[in-house]
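This part of the workshop introduces the protein records we will be handling. A record pairs a protein's sequence with a compact description of its fold. As an example, a complete record with its sequence and its structure tokens follows.

_____
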Amino acid sequence: SEKSFLNLRFVILAAFLIAAILISRIFCRAVCPLGAIYALTSRFSIHKMAFDPANCINCGKCDKVCPVGLDVRKEVGGPECISCGDCRKICPKTCFSSNFILIDKKKGNI
């Protein structure tokens, strides 16, 4: 019984290590409770990041600097975006903006 439990632990460890090699940020995406809390509460955040594609020259600098590994031009401001602002800082064309929003103009509520 104890030997099978030890084997199970090694199987779980091996599976997690293989997943860590094959899947970027597997711990953050699948296990970390903090990431889940951020994803659930991000839609209620008063700090919003936005992307303006009209100015984008597709240099890809924003994707390279994103600590979360997002496809920034598609996912900025989404549930996995942590609104760090690194994309905004590195962008040569100021395609990104960040605002503190208290009132949702579309819905008319706070």
